[in-house]
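chain below, 324 aa
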Amino acid sequence: MFKDVGQITQALSQQQYISTDEISTVMFLAEKLEKPILTEGPAGVGKTELAKAWAKAAGRPLIRLQCYEGLDESKALYEWEYAKQMLYTQLLRDKLSEILAKTGSLTEAADRLGQEENVFFSERFLLARPLLQAITAPEPVVLLIDEIDRADAEFEAFLLEILSDFQVSVPELGTIKARHMPVVILTSNNTRELSEALKRRCLYLFIDYPSHDSELRIVQMRVPQLSAKLAQQAVEVVQSLRQMDLKKSPSVSETIDWAKALVMLNADHLDKRTLETTLTVLLKHESDVQKAKRTLLQGGGGTGGHPLNRRPNDDTPRRRGGWN
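prediction:
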Protein backbone atom coordinates (compact mmCIF):
# COMPACT_ATOMS: atom_id res chain seq x y z
CA MET A 1 0.00 0.00 0.00
CA PHE A 2 2.73 2.47 1.04
CA LYS A 3 5.87 2.41 -1.08
CA ASP A 4 8.30 3.76 1.51
CA VAL A 5 8.68 5.06 5.05
CA GLY A 6 8.28 8.67 3.96
CA GLN A 7 4.80 8.01 2.61
CA ILE A 8 3.78 6.54 5.95
CA THR A 9 5.06 9.60 7.83
CA GLN A 10 3.11 11.85 5.49
CA ALA A 11 -0.05 9.73 5.68
CA LEU A 12 0.02 9.72 9.50
CA SER A 13 0.62 13.47 9.52
CA GLN A 14 -2.53 13.92 7.47
CA GLN A 15 -4.36 12.18 10.31
CA GLN A 16 -2.81 14.64 12.80
CA TYR A 17 -0.34 12.09 14.14
CA ILE A 18 3.28 13.24 14.40
CA SER A 19 5.35 10.16 13.58
CA THR A 20 9.06 9.64 14.16
CA ASP A 21 11.30 7.81 11.72
CA GLU A 22 11.30 4.82 14.05
CA ILE A 23 7.51 4.64 14.23
CA SER A 24 7.11 4.96 10.46
CA THR A 25 9.79 2.32 9.84
CA VAL A 26 8.16 -0.20 12.18
CA MET A 27 4.75 0.41 10.61
CA PHE A 28 6.23 -0.07 7.13
CA LEU A 29 7.94 -3.33 8.11
CA ALA A 30 4.85 -4.66 9.88
CA GLU A 31 2.85 -4.17 6.71
CA LYS A 32 5.46 -5.85 4.52
CA LEU A 33 6.34 -8.70 6.89
CA GLU A 34 2.73 -9.24 8.02
CA LYS A 35 3.74 -9.24 11.68
CA PRO A 36 1.95 -7.77 14.71
CA ILE A 37 3.37 -4.71 16.47
CA LEU A 38 3.83 -4.54 20.23
CA THR A 39 3.95 -0.90 21.33
CA GLU A 40 5.03 -0.15 24.88
CA GLY A 41 5.47 3.09 26.76
CA PRO A 42 3.90 5.35 29.40
CA ALA A 43 0.15 5.87 29.36
CA GLY A 44 -1.06 8.67 27.13
CA VAL A 45 1.89 8.96 24.73
CA GLY A 46 -0.11 8.03 21.62
CA LYS A 47 0.00 4.23 21.36
CA THR A 48 -3.74 3.84 20.88
CA GLU A 49 -3.86 6.96 18.71
CA LEU A 50 -1.27 5.36 16.42
CA ALA A 51 -3.63 2.47 15.71
CA LYS A 52 -6.52 4.86 15.06
CA ALA A 53 -4.42 7.06 12.78
CA TRP A 54 -3.04 4.05 10.92
CA ALA A 55 -6.53 2.69 10.27
CA LYS A 56 -7.64 6.03 8.83
CA ALA A 57 -4.44 6.47 6.81
CA ALA A 58 -4.74 2.96 5.34
CA GLY A 59 -8.49 3.27 4.79
CA ARG A 60 -9.24 0.19 6.90
CA PRO A 61 -11.89 -0.43 9.57
CA LEU A 62 -10.58 -0.42 13.14
CA ILE A 63 -11.60 -3.29 15.43
CA ARG A 64 -10.66 -2.72 19.08
CA LEU A 65 -10.32 -5.24 21.90
CA GLN A 66 -9.95 -3.50 25.26
CA CYS A 67 -8.14 -5.82 27.66
CA TYR A 68 -8.84 -6.10 31.38
CA GLU A 69 -8.26 -8.52 34.22
CA GLY A 70 -10.48 -11.59 33.80
CA LEU A 71 -10.91 -11.22 30.04
CA ASP A 72 -11.55 -14.64 28.50
CA GLU A 73 -12.19 -16.24 25.12
CA SER A 74 -15.95 -15.74 25.24
CA LYS A 75 -15.51 -11.97 25.46
CA ALA A 76 -12.61 -11.74 23.04
CA LEU A 77 -13.27 -14.46 20.45
CA TYR A 78 -16.84 -15.72 20.28
CA GLU A 79 -19.76 -17.15 22.19
CA TRP A 80 -22.92 -18.99 21.25
CA GLU A 81 -26.20 -17.11 21.41
CA TYR A 82 -28.00 -19.65 23.59
CA ALA A 83 -31.13 -17.52 23.90
CA LYS A 84 -31.43 -17.41 20.11
CA GLN A 85 -30.85 -21.17 19.91
CA MET A 86 -33.64 -21.76 22.44
CA LEU A 87 -35.97 -19.49 20.51
CA TYR A 88 -35.31 -21.39 17.29
CA THR A 89 -35.88 -24.67 19.16
CA GLN A 90 -39.28 -23.46 20.30
CA LEU A 91 -40.20 -22.26 16.83
CA LEU A 92 -39.11 -25.53 15.24
CA ARG A 93 -40.53 -27.88 17.89
CA ASP A 94 -43.27 -29.13 15.56
CA LYS A 95 -40.67 -30.05 12.95
CA LEU A 96 -38.51 -31.73 15.60
CA SER A 97 -41.49 -33.72 16.81
CA GLU A 98 -42.09 -34.90 13.26
CA ILE A 99 -38.46 -35.99 12.89
CA LEU A 100 -38.37 -37.83 16.22
CA ALA A 101 -41.78 -39.49 15.72
CA LYS A 102 -40.24 -41.93 13.25
CA THR A 103 -37.68 -43.25 15.76
CA GLY A 104 -38.23 -46.42 17.78
CA SER A 105 -35.90 -45.93 20.76
CA LEU A 106 -34.17 -43.23 22.77
CA THR A 107 -30.85 -44.15 21.21
CA GLU A 108 -32.27 -43.86 17.73
CA ALA A 109 -33.93 -40.55 18.65
CA ALA A 110 -30.66 -39.17 20.01
CA ASP A 111 -28.80 -40.26 16.87
CA ARG A 112 -31.46 -38.73 14.65
CA LEU A 113 -31.37 -35.46 16.60
CA GLY A 114 -27.57 -35.44 16.42
CA GLN A 115 -27.77 -35.39 12.65
CA GLU A 116 -29.58 -32.05 12.88
CA GLU A 117 -27.31 -30.37 15.43
CA ASN A 118 -25.42 -28.48 12.70
CA VAL A 119 -28.56 -26.43 12.31
CA PHE A 120 -28.14 -25.08 15.85
CA PHE A 121 -24.34 -24.90 15.90
CA SER A 122 -23.72 -22.82 12.82
CA GLU A 123 -22.54 -19.29 12.13
CA ARG A 124 -26.19 -18.26 12.41
CA PHE A 125 -25.89 -18.54 16.20
CA LEU A 126 -22.23 -17.55 16.54
CA LEU A 127 -21.73 -14.16 18.18
CA ALA A 128 -18.34 -12.92 16.95
CA ARG A 129 -16.23 -10.87 19.34
CA PRO A 130 -13.36 -8.57 18.21
CA LEU A 131 -10.77 -11.31 17.48
CA LEU A 132 -13.13 -13.38 15.37
CA GLN A 133 -14.50 -10.24 13.70
CA ALA A 134 -10.98 -9.35 12.57
CA ILE A 135 -10.32 -12.83 11.20
CA THR A 136 -13.63 -13.18 9.35
CA ALA A 137 -13.85 -9.59 8.10
CA PRO A 138 -14.58 -9.42 4.36
CA GLU A 139 -11.91 -6.72 3.96
CA PRO A 140 -8.50 -6.04 5.58
CA VAL A 141 -8.82 -4.42 9.00
CA VAL A 142 -6.66 -2.98 11.75
CA LEU A 143 -6.98 -4.97 14.98
CA LEU A 144 -6.10 -3.00 18.13
CA ILE A 145 -5.50 -5.15 21.22
CA ASP A 146 -5.34 -2.38 23.77
CA GLU A 147 -3.52 -2.67 27.11
CA ILE A 148 -2.62 -6.33 26.77
CA ASP A 149 -0.66 -6.07 30.03
CA ARG A 150 -3.96 -5.71 31.91
CA ALA A 151 -5.13 -9.15 30.77
CA ASP A 152 -4.12 -12.35 32.55
CA ALA A 153 -1.15 -14.42 31.44
CA GLU A 154 -3.56 -17.19 30.43
CA PHE A 155 -5.27 -14.91 27.94
CA GLU A 156 -1.91 -13.77 26.63
CA ALA A 157 -1.04 -17.44 25.97
CA PHE A 158 -4.36 -17.90 24.17
CA LEU A 159 -3.40 -15.10 21.79
CA LEU A 160 -0.33 -16.94 20.54
CA GLU A 161 -2.24 -19.18 18.11
CA ILE A 162 -3.98 -16.19 16.60
CA LEU A 163 -0.82 -14.10 16.28
CA SER A 164 1.14 -17.03 14.83
CA ASP A 165 -1.28 -18.39 12.25
CA PHE A 166 -4.16 -15.88 12.22
CA GLN A 167 -6.65 -18.67 12.70
CA VAL A 168 -8.92 -19.85 15.51
CA SER A 169 -10.44 -23.21 16.38
CA VAL A 170 -14.16 -23.44 17.03
CA PRO A 171 -14.88 -27.03 18.15
CA GLU A 172 -18.36 -27.13 16.61
CA LEU A 173 -17.26 -25.60 13.30
CA GLY A 174 -13.57 -26.44 12.93
CA THR A 175 -10.69 -24.11 12.12
CA ILE A 176 -11.49 -20.65 10.82
CA LYS A 177 -8.65 -18.97 8.93
CA ALA A 178 -8.32 -15.26 8.28
CA ARG A 179 -9.80 -14.12 4.97
CA HIS A 180 -7.40 -11.19 4.93
CA MET A 181 -4.31 -10.66 7.06
CA PRO A 182 -5.18 -7.92 9.59
CA VAL A 183 -2.68 -5.37 10.82
CA VAL A 184 -2.43 -6.11 14.54
CA ILE A 185 -1.27 -3.48 17.04
CA LEU A 186 -0.92 -4.44 20.69
CA THR A 187 -0.36 -1.75 23.33
CA SER A 188 1.12 -2.10 26.80
CA ASN A 189 1.67 0.37 29.65
CA ASN A 190 4.24 -1.93 31.27
CA THR A 191 2.08 -2.76 34.29
CA ARG A 192 3.46 -6.31 34.09
CA GLU A 193 6.13 -8.12 32.12
CA LEU A 194 4.86 -9.76 28.93
CA SER A 195 6.01 -13.23 27.90
CA GLU A 196 8.94 -13.79 25.60
CA ALA A 197 6.70 -15.95 23.40
CA LEU A 198 4.42 -12.99 22.74
CA LYS A 199 7.28 -10.59 22.15
CA ARG A 200 8.94 -13.02 19.74
CA ARG A 201 5.90 -12.96 17.49
CA CYS A 202 5.81 -9.17 17.26
CA LEU A 203 7.83 -6.25 16.02
CA TYR A 204 8.68 -4.09 19.01
CA LEU A 205 8.11 -0.34 19.29
CA PHE A 206 8.67 1.83 22.35
CA ILE A 207 6.91 5.18 22.33
CA ASP A 208 8.15 7.64 24.96
CA TYR A 209 7.08 11.15 25.89
CA PRO A 210 7.83 13.46 22.95
CA SER A 211 10.64 15.96 22.88
CA HIS A 212 9.90 19.66 23.40
CA ASP A 213 9.85 20.39 19.67
CA SER A 214 7.69 17.36 18.83
CA GLU A 215 5.17 18.15 21.54
CA LEU A 216 5.00 21.76 20.39
CA ARG A 217 4.21 20.56 16.88
CA ILE A 218 1.49 18.29 18.27
CA VAL A 219 -0.11 21.13 20.23
CA GLN A 220 0.02 23.49 17.26
CA MET A 221 -1.51 20.84 15.01
CA ARG A 222 -4.27 19.72 17.39
CA VAL A 223 -5.08 23.13 18.92
CA PRO A 224 -4.36 25.68 16.17
CA GLN A 225 -6.38 28.37 18.01
CA LEU A 226 -3.69 28.60 20.69
CA SER A 227 -1.19 31.40 20.09
CA ALA A 228 2.40 30.45 19.32
CA LYS A 229 3.69 32.18 22.46
CA LEU A 230 1.18 30.47 24.75
CA ALA A 231 1.77 27.10 23.09
CA GLN A 232 5.49 27.50 23.75
CA GLN A 233 4.87 28.37 27.40
CA ALA A 234 2.41 25.50 27.87
CA VAL A 235 4.78 22.91 26.45
CA GLU A 236 7.62 24.21 28.63
CA VAL A 237 5.46 23.76 31.73
CA VAL A 238 4.54 20.19 30.74
CA GLN A 239 8.15 19.32 29.98
CA SER A 240 9.15 20.73 33.37
CA LEU A 241 6.46 18.71 35.16
CA ARG A 242 7.78 15.50 33.60
CA GLN A 243 11.18 16.18 35.14
CA MET A 244 9.65 16.16 38.64
CA ASP A 245 9.18 13.10 40.80
CA LEU A 246 5.41 12.77 40.35
CA LYS A 247 3.04 9.86 40.81
CA LYS A 248 1.74 10.39 37.28
CA SER A 249 3.42 12.64 34.74
CA PRO A 250 1.11 14.50 32.35
CA SER A 251 0.47 12.64 29.11
CA VAL A 252 0.35 14.09 25.62
CA SER A 253 -3.42 13.81 25.61
CA GLU A 254 -3.52 15.85 28.82
CA THR A 255 -1.24 18.46 27.24
CA ILE A 256 -3.75 18.77 24.40
CA ASP A 257 -6.65 19.00 26.87
CA TRP A 258 -4.81 21.76 28.74
CA ALA A 259 -4.14 23.67 25.53
CA LYS A 260 -7.84 23.47 24.68
CA ALA A 261 -8.71 24.65 28.20
CA LEU A 262 -6.46 27.69 27.82
CA VAL A 263 -8.26 28.54 24.58
CA MET A 264 -11.65 28.19 26.32
CA LEU A 265 -10.46 30.54 29.07
CA ASN A 266 -9.32 33.12 26.48
CA ALA A 267 -5.85 33.15 28.04
CA ASP A 268 -3.32 35.29 26.20
CA HIS A 269 -0.38 34.37 28.41
CA LEU A 270 0.35 31.89 31.18
CA ASP A 271 0.39 33.71 34.51
CA LYS A 272 0.51 32.26 38.00
CA ARG A 273 -3.22 32.35 38.59
CA THR A 274 -4.03 30.64 35.29
CA LEU A 275 -1.52 27.90 36.02
CA GLU A 276 -2.74 27.46 39.60
CA THR A 277 -6.39 27.12 38.59
CA THR A 278 -5.80 24.77 35.63
CA LEU A 279 -3.09 22.43 36.96
CA THR A 280 -5.67 19.72 37.64
CA VAL A 281 -6.20 19.36 33.89
CA LEU A 282 -2.62 18.07 33.75
CA LEU A 283 -2.18 16.39 37.14
CA LYS A 284 -4.63 13.95 38.70
CA HIS A 285 -3.08 13.44 42.16
CA GLU A 286 -3.33 16.11 44.86
CA SER A 287 0.23 15.45 46.01
CA ASP A 288 1.45 16.08 42.44
CA VAL A 289 -0.57 19.30 42.23
CA GLN A 290 0.90 20.61 45.48
CA LYS A 291 4.45 19.66 44.47
CA ALA A 292 4.02 21.40 41.10
CA LYS A 293 2.69 24.55 42.78
CA ARG A 294 5.65 24.67 45.14
CA THR A 295 8.12 24.21 42.30
CA LEU A 296 6.57 26.34 39.56
CA LEU A 297 4.77 29.03 41.55
CA GLN A 298 7.02 29.49 44.58
CA GLY A 299 10.35 28.32 43.25
CA GLY A 300 10.90 31.47 41.20
CA GLY A 301 11.86 33.45 44.28
CA GLY A 302 10.31 36.76 43.24
CA THR A 303 8.95 38.39 40.14
CA GLY A 304 12.04 39.28 38.19
CA GLY A 305 12.85 36.52 35.71
CA HIS A 306 10.25 33.88 36.47
CA PRO A 307 8.60 32.79 33.19
CA LEU A 308 5.10 32.96 34.65
CA ASN A 309 5.58 36.70 35.11
CA ARG A 310 6.76 37.35 31.56
CA ARG A 311 4.33 38.93 29.16
CA PRO A 312 3.95 37.35 25.72
CA ASN A 313 6.27 39.98 24.18
CA ASP A 314 9.16 38.98 26.46
CA ASP A 315 11.58 37.09 24.23
CA THR A 316 14.08 36.21 26.95
CA PRO A 317 15.77 32.96 25.88
CA ARG A 318 14.73 29.87 27.83
CA ARG A 319 16.29 26.43 28.12
CA ARG A 320 14.34 23.57 26.57
CA GLY A 321 11.99 21.83 28.97
CA GLY A 322 12.67 23.94 32.06
CA TRP A 323 11.90 27.18 33.84
CA ASN A 324 14.66 29.71 34.49
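The chain has three domains: 5-77+129-206, 79-125, 212-309. The chain has a mean pLDDT of 84.
thats it, cya
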